[in-house]
Amino acid sequence: MRAIDEHTITEAALDQMASTPDPRLKEIMAALTRHLHNFAREVDLTPDEWLEGIKFLTAVGQKCTAYRQEFILLSDTLGLSSLVNALHDRRATEAWRYHRDQAHQRPGGLSLWARD
Question: Cα–Cα distance between 24 and 30 in angstroms, integer?
Answer without folding.
Answer: 10
